[in-house]
């Protein structure tokens, strides 16, 4: 196996570990985690352990944005020791729609396919 392949596999494994940790961050209004709601758009960690997470919210001006931000930072820093620093960037494109939710989230919220 080439070193680059190993690095890509390690990166994917770390990204998956972060996404799994983020499944513990629950949107208090909907009672579903932010990953299954489709709010996490991108996760990237550099070689120094700096993690950038791009996310959106279900609506602009969501009153829970600060609480979710803090929960994301706390969860990733506690559950993923490879991460040294977390930067959460709020993005609005693409705009969130219920189609971004996982099948699990749609079923849990009673939304038909």
Automatic annotation (TrEMBL):
TM ranges: none
One Pfam family this sequence matches: FeS_assembly_P
Cross-referenced InterPro entries: Fe-S_Maturation_MIP18, FSCA_dom_sf, MIP18-like
Domain of life: Bacteria
Domain MIP18 family-like, residue spans: 16-88
Protein known as: MIP18 family-like domain-containing protein
């Amino acid at each position: 196996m080439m070193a680059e392949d190993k690095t890509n596999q390690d990166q994917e494994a770390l990204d998956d570990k972060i996404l799994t940790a983020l499944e513990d961050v629950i949107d208090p209004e909907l009672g579903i985690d932010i990953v299954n709601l489709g709010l996490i758009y991108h996760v990237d960690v550099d070689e120094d352990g700096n993690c950038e997470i791009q996310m959106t919210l279900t609506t602009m001006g969501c009153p829970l944005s600060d609480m979710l931000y803090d929960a994301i930072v706390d969860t990733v820093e506690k559950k993923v020791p490879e991460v040294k620093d977390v930067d959460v960037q709020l993005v609005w494109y693409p705009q969130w729609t219920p189609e971004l939710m996982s099948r699990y989230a749609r079923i849990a919220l009673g939304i038909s396919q």
